[in-house]
Design a protein that fits this description.
The chain is mainly beta. 14% of the residues lie in helices and 45% in strands. A hairpin with a 2-residue loop joins strand 2 and strand 3.
Length: 191
């Protein structure tokens, strides 16, 4: 399972004016839901959230609500950004439980150097994240895909991937990576 990271949030008031006031204080509004509890409106400091969001791997958060004794294991389910300033404007946290599968997007990391690249081909990496379903204890930080056996003209598709205890939710025909022939002719390289 992905390593848990501590995160503290505070309960927040609802309503447009309350949200504007929070944002002026450097806080980002969010919602904590799942686990059989009613949704809880929360807020967290934007700098702390931004640091956590810039990490590529999927993270499980050990969440505590300021002033309360309960803690929750949760994942970041969604984040909304301002289209002009790219500022984080909202986030959703989903509580996870050990016995219920979760659906998340995880990064796809390519490993190895394809044989086709050593022969002059060019690697093209198309899928950088995939949606998966698994129990929380099997949640990977990323999926590592070995591409070392790819020759020029060969591809790895979603249907070619298999990871224990993980179900990939993307269409099987989707190309993850391929090695294509170089379009540079020998005349161009000799001049």
């Amino acid at each position: 399972m992905a390593e848990a990271v501590a995160l503290t949030v505070q309960r927040r008031p609802t309503g447009k004016s309350a949200v504007r006031s929070l944002r002026r204080q450097g806080l980002v509004p969010g919602v904590l839901y799942g686990g059989g509890i009613p949704p809880i409106p929360v807020a967290a400091h934007s700098l702390m959230l931004r640091r956590l969001l810039t990490q590529q791997e999927v993270r499980v958060f050990k969440l505590s609500v300021d002033g309360e004794s309960s803690t929750y294991d949760c994942i970041l389910k969604d984040a909304a950004f301002d289209p002009v300033t790219d500022a984080l404007i909202h986030f959703d946290l989903q509580i996870i439980t050990a016995d219920r599968p979760i659906e998340v997007e995880v990064p796809v990391i390519l490993s190895g150097t394809p044989i086709g690249v050593t022969k002059g081909g060019i690697l093209e990496h198309f899928v950088h994240k995939v949606r998966i379903s698994c129990l929380p204890q099997h949640l990977p930080e990323h999926l590592a895909v070995d591409i070392s056996g790819l020759e020029v003209g060969q591809s790895i598709h979603i249907r070619d991937l298999s990871f224990p205890n993980i179900r990939i939710l993307e269409h099987g025909d989707t190309v993850v990576a391929t090695v294509v022939a170089s379009t540079v002719s020998e005349e161009e390289t000799s001049s």
